[in-house]
Specification:
Length: 193
Amino acid sequence: MPGCAWLGAALVLGAQLRALWLAAAVEVHTAKEVVAVNGTNQRLKCTFSSSSPVSQQLSVSWNFQPEDLSAHEPVFYFLKEPYKPPSGRFKERVTWDGNIERNDVSIIIWNLQPSDNGTFTCQVTNWPDVYGTIGEVRLRVVQKVSFSEIHFLAVAIGSASALMIVVVTAVILCRQRRRRARDKRPGVADTEG
């Protein structure tokens, strides 16, 4: 029976170590979906938290999965300094916009095209935290901005203001007409006096 007790203790210790390992993993945070207008630039925000201080071996990998589910493409890499892709669709179209001291590993994609629709992944390793979550951002490139609630509110306020100006103007014009009509009737002024 002592062998079973040893095996049970090892399993419990293994479970506790696994829980500590999971707690020590890097956590990556991104927006789930971003909508951008064709031809504009878009910052893809990615931040991380780690149980370890930021190390010199911290690395960041950005990759892209097109909507048509073709092969993943590298977008950007960081290890001590930013490395732009030497080839591919994002060559000369991506720049580093992060700040490692603030746990920010964001990038900017320039001159967005409809072919950029897809999912961008952000992966951070911070030795000894080499495992953790991978952040995903789904990018949708649209031809024009959709009619948002703020636009609707601006149109509603503008329309209400214009309608109020028309009503006030109509009331003023009606009063002036009545006054002129009353002033033109000669008998009305004598009988009132």
